[in-house]
Amino acid sequence: MKTATTNEVRQALIDRREIALFDVRDEAVFAEAHPLFAANLPLERLELDILDRVPRQTTPIVVYDEGEGRAEESLPRLAVLGYSNVSVLQGGLEGWRSAGAEIFRDVNTPSKAFGELVESRRHTPSLTASEVHALIERGADLVVLDARRRDEYQTMSIPTAISVPGAELVYRAPSIAPRPETLVIVNCAGRTRSIIGTQSLVNAGVVQHVAALRNGTIGWVLDGFTLDHGQKRTAPAIDADAAARARSAARDVARRAGVRRVTSSELAALLGDSARTTYRFDVRTPEEYEAGHPSGFRSAPGGQLVQEADVFAPVRGARIALWDDQAARADMTASWLAQMAWEVYVLDAAFAPTDLEAGPWRPPQFRVPVTAEGSSSGQRRYKRPYEGTDNPREAMQAYLDWEYGLVAQLERDGTHGFFVI
């Protein structure tokens, strides 16, 4: 059995060499403690997900558990699937901890830590729930844009909020709020997507007045206000001039972040490099993707790709190529991924409808569609403190308190390579 030490894994991360570090335990225990760039791949889902999540079979893979034997059990199963460079983390999670390496909790932790870093460096503008509630009550000139997935928005939302998932914000906000006097409020369930969405609008400069709803729907509930449920408000048709300005602004932001552009032939050359992994994502809405997408591109709406980079692209050090027929969403998504230390490209290519493939990517997401209590397979899912409508107030406050400490954890960890433009 081949093993890898904590120091070897950490050095690969620091050097930005390709490595996929997988925690093969259930999501519920993974969320309690894991390394920053560990991705959760429960043993029960290994064959279902691994080929999409690690498309290159010679990629260095390190698996671990906490002494349950799952890591060792995964080795022959990965070998049958053709993976030839698999190691077990020496000492498992306890070995990582004993080596003095930082331990994180929750899920999508790299993205959440990055969001906190952005806010601390850029002082992203925000308003409390009480401040936003007072503005709504007195009929102020404002719009509330919900940056989460549409299904999350429909479950619970801020009164008056419109569903505009993350990467759509720079593209659609100018048409939703064409008056320069209008205040644009961006919210999510907690903090990350509010921060990234608000800072996207600040970076692009497509609206004049913008602020995050501090602590999102969690903050709204903790301040004693009522959420709406089952809403279906969506963005109106896009004004052509506003869309053109958004495209220009987004491209400038991507350039400042160091995003590279590639033609179809240049992307083909990257894909032909057998020594590197190149992920391909279509960052448009799921509806647009299903209507027609370039061959080989997975559906990863831009806001969720930034939020769940560890899920969509667990091979740290890999390349990422994005496509969007309107450009702005790919450019803004790429700008954030670049700041998260990814080598990221935007495909500059237009496709005729006959060149596109219709239908959803299968599997469409790598989420476990079960409750926190488990499923018939015995797999346990982590119940996020910011999802659903029945979360204890103590759990919501504890989650916020944890997020506030992530910047200090990043500094102690030292493997991330993040920067903020």
Please describe what this structure looks like.
The structure is a single chain. With 421 residues, the protein is of the alpha/beta class. The protein has three domains: 1-105, 3-Layer(aba) Sandwich (Oxidized Rhodanese, domain 1), CATH 3.40.250.10; 114-238, Oxidized Rhodanese, domain 1, CATH 3.40.250; 247-355, Rhodanese-like domain (Oxidized Rhodanese, domain 1), CATH 3.40.250. The protein is 41% helix and 13% strand. It is built from 19 helices and 15 strands. It has helices at 6-15, 27-30, 46-53, 70-80, 92-98, 109-122, 129-137, 150-155, 169-176, 192-204, 216-222, 240-257, 264-271, 286-291, 302-307, 309-312, 328-339, 393-404, 406-413; strands spanning 3-4, 20-23, 38-40, 61-64, 86-89, 126-127, 142-146, 162-163, 183-187, 209-213, 260-262, 278-282, 298-299, 319-323, 343-347. The strands form three sheets. A five-stranded parallel beta sheet has the order 1-5-4-2-3. A five-stranded parallel beta sheet has the order 6-10-9-7-8. Helix 2 links the parallel strand 2 and strand 3. The termini are far apart. Mean pLDDT is 94; it is low at 363-377.
